């Protein structure tokens, strides 16, 4: 089975925007998975996080065709006391 994995990371640092991100992609013959996370802060705002994940999978057996798609998006704002 051929499998491929890719990872991407990076940072942005400036006065108006400070952020970091990480993403990964994994795919094989009947499977695809992607994940990404971004943490950012603009100006004097509190930090925010956006996370995304998706998966596409072919679970076919014989003539029966079954495919599954899953998507998750999560957004949060950090409160620091």
Commentary on this structure:
- The protein is mostly beta strands.
- The chain has a domain at 1-53: S-adenosyl-L-methionine-dependent methyltransferases, CATH 2.20.130.
- It is built from no helices and 5 strands.
- It has strands at residues 4-13, 17-28, 31-42, 48-58, 67-77.
- A 5-stranded antiparallel β-sheet has the order 1-2-3-4-5, with no helix packed on it.
- Strand 2 (17-28) and strand 3 form a beta hairpin.
- The radius of gyration is 17 Å and the shape is elongated.
- The model has no long low-confidence stretch (mean pLDDT 80).
Major sheet description: 5 strands, antiparallel
Please, how many helices?
0
> Can you tell me the overall shape?
elongated
Strand order, biggest sheet?
A: 1-2-3-4-5
As for the CATH topology of the domain at 1-53, it is S-adenosyl-L-methionine-dependent methyltransferases
Instruction: Give the proportion of residues in helices.
Output: under 10%
Task: For the record, give the distance between the C-alpha atoms at the N and C termini, rounded to a whole number.
Answer: 50 Å
Stretches where pLDDT falls below 50 for ≥5 residues? none
- SS-derived structural category: mainly beta
Helix/strand order:
EEEEE
């Amino acid at each position: 089975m051929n499998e491929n994995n890719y990872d991407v990371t990076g940072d942005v640092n400036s006065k108006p925007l400070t952020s970091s991100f990480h993403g990964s992609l994994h795919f094989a013959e009947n499977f695809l998975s992607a994940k990404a996370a971004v943490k950012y802060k603009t100006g004097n705002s509190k930090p925010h996080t956006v996370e995304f994940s998706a998966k596409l999978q072919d679970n076919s057996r014989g003539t029966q065709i079954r495919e599954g798609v899953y998507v998750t998006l999560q957004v949060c704002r950090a409160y620091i006391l």
